[in-house]
Write a structure and sequence with these properties.
Helices cover about 25% and strands about 20% of the residues. It is of the alpha/beta class and about 425 residues long. The strands form five sheets. Strands 1, 2, 3, 4, 5, 6 and 19 form a seven-stranded mixed sheet that branches. It has a five-stranded parallel sheet with strand order 8-17-9-10-13, with helices on one face. A three-stranded antiparallel sheet has the order 14-15-16, with no helix packed on it.
């Protein structure tokens, strides 16, 4: 039986919940379709056991549930966050329908609204909000198929804790947030760790009395819009390595080298049990050093310009990573490597959405989530509008914008903010 409803939200993660919150406040009939049996499942099933937020609790700004506890500079643990989302749904009585997988979103034959076909239901809706995020499919390099069969390999989203891995050394591929945090945890548990270092930056956890996320806000960096980037493709760049574990601290690859983690360059291929590496370790370390240096210089300039009464600070100047050789091969068996963890990110997949609103890379063409197809919206993507669009600190703002656009469409009014330039492209 076809069910008719004003708005369908696809995805019950933070973006879908925030949008539902605003639509509920409007009194607009809607439903949130979530393919699993719980809200925001990625926070539980896509994170390891000891995971914490990498931004302080004060950055948690879900609409109607902004953080107001007594640990603003703490870092909420995974299970606490999962419980928060569950309570959020109950508190605001958000209309989630669980265990419902959307298979296709199509324009209706009469051109009025959409058909939303699911594995167990069929909806007709005036509006559809796609809130499935950007991380649908774990990314594995093609060389993963050439690893020896004796080696266990898993994506970072499937890693849980050191005890679940086979005894032996571990190769972690990727040095953004997840890769560095997992590598450090494994080292703490006495595992020999090899880390393939890529082109990710580094940011200090705190500097001159403030968390780096506070400085991002003060410097206006969190409000940068995607059109301010040197290239739209930079919205896919790796995040700088940073952590919230142990009440927050800075991660530094040079400290990793000092602590006994073996740093190597990017993984190029695997042949006959030999990992072939790029000789770019020192180059990538230099990139991380420059990234941090540029960031703190911006902070120092801001402090001087605004005459802030904050103490000066000199960050540790470490260089142990440069002392590690630029090796181009790792003999996996000889080194006792029994596990490879791919901290290599995710691929996005919007193939369930059939209207032609995508660029040549399959990314939605939109302005702050509003597409050229009337009634079709996206929310919750990194850099959808600005730097914090995909974060708990900013997703509520974009959700409010989309809810306003839906209300304006219902009344036939134009807010002027939802205008879409059809030729707009997110790719070079």
């Amino acid at each position: 039986m076809v069910q008719k409803i004003d708005t369908v939200i696809i995805g019950g993660g933070q973006a879908g919940l925030a949008t539902s919150y605003h639509l509920r406040r409007q009194g607009r009939p809607h439903i949130v379709l979530e393919q699993t049996g719980q809200p925001a499942p990625a926070w539980q099933h896509g994170r390891w056991d000891s995971f914490t937020l990498v931004t302080p609790n004060l950055s948690l700004r879900l609409p109607g549930a902004e953080y107001c506890g007594d640990q603003p500079y703490g870092f909420m643990a995974r299970d606490q966050l999962v419980a928060l989302f569950r309570h959020y749904v109950e508190r605001f009585q958000l209309p989630l329908r669980y265990n419902t997988k959307v298979e296709a979103v199509e324009c209706r034959a009469d051109g009025d609204g959409f058909e939303v076909r699911c594995d167990s239901a069929h909806f007709e809706a005036e509006n559809v909000v796609v809130a499935t995020g950007l991380f649908q499919q774990p990314r594995y390099p093609t060389c993963s198929s050439r690893l020896p069969a004796r080696i266990t390999q898993l994506h970072s989203g499937l890693y849980r804790n050191p005890a679940t891995l086979a005894a032996g050394a571990v190769l972690v591929v990727g040095s953004s947030q997840s890769g560095c945090q997992i590598a450090e945890e494994l080292r703490r548990h006495g595992r020999p760790v090899y880390l393939c270092v890529g082109a990710a930056g580094r940011a200090p956890r705190r500097y001159r009395g403030k968390d780096c996320s506070e400085w991002l806000d003060l410097l206006g960096l969190s409000e940068r819009t995607v059109d301010m980037l040197a290239s739209p493709r930079l919205k896919f760049a790796a995040n700088p390595h940073i952590a919230g574990k142990d009440d927050g601290k800075s991660l530094n690859l040079h400290q990793f080298a000092r602590d006994g983690i073996t740093l190597v360059g990017r993984l190029l291929d695997v042949r006959n049990g030999i990992a072939q590496l790029a000789p770019d370790l020192h180059q990538n370390l230099e990139l991380a050093d420059r990234f941090e240096s540029a960031f703190v210089q911006q902070i120092d300039h801001y402090v001087a310009q605004h005459k802030l009464d904050v103490p000066p600070e000199n960050l540790p100047q470490l260089d142990e990573g440069y002392r590690q050789p630029q090796t181009t091969e790792l003999d996996l068996e000889k080194l006792g490597i029994t596990t490879v963890i791919w901290a290599t990110g995710y691929r996005y997949d919007f193939s369930l959405v059939k209207p032609p609103v995508f660029d040549r890379d399959g990314y939605p063409v939109q302005r702050r989530g509003v597409t050229a197809q009337p009634g079709l919206y996206f929310v919750g993507l990194p850099w959808l509008h600005n730097q914090k669009s995909g974060l708990l600190s900013g997703v509520g703002d974009d959700a409010a914008f989309i809810a306003t656009a839906i209300a304006a469409r219902a009344t036939g009014c134009s807010t002027g903010r939802g205008h879409v330039v059809a030729s707009y492209s997110t790719s070079d």
